[in-house]
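ingest -> validate -> predict -> emit
validate: passed (alphabet ok, no gaps, 229 aa)
predict: started
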Amino acid sequence: MKKLFGFYILVLTLFFASCDKKGSSYDFAQILYPNAYGAVLYADQTIDTLRFATTYDWSLSVPAEWMSVNPDSMSGVVPEGYYMVYKVQVKFDTNKSDTVRTDFIFFNADGRSLASAYSQLHYMNIQRPRRTNYQFLLQDSARQERDSLVFRTYSNDWALTFKDGQPSWIILDADAKMSGRSGTYVVKYDLQPNETTEPREALLELRSADVVNKIKIRQTGLNKTTGNN
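emit:
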């Protein structure tokens, strides 16, 4: 992502102004959001905004097929001597690919264009466990008694399920949410101790809209020589 952000800084121009007065103000056009680094969204995040201020009549161009702006919000007229601040809703398809995607919305005013970047990740906003080595893996020790999953969804139609059925060694809290509306959730669970020397695993699937991410819980076995973790 650092390389992408560096790329944004090089190619984005978020402001231009002129010393010629329009009424009692200077002519200008400026993108207020996203900033020069661009906006970063998660795979199931389908709504964001473009916010800008201008003294010029303006129009937008949205070349990417996976994002769109309502046709009624694609252009506007600014009266002589005024400036206007606009907030336009931007819609995105869910990202079901295996890679991040980036494209631009172009804000056109006074014969020139400003570009604003949007990147959509190919995974959801799972905060525990963090995504490492291209996977979500929660590592628990053989004697660990308690742990939790933390995630945020952007769809009002999400569900968390065990792929091959809930194993007996994982006991979800009675109030653990396994489906619901958009928001941030903490799913807590207890662990039975692993009395063997072999690790064991459980695979969960988090579905939000039509995006699916796999989360693996791995509990280590006892040390073969000492009988400890």
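The longest strand covers residues 25-33.
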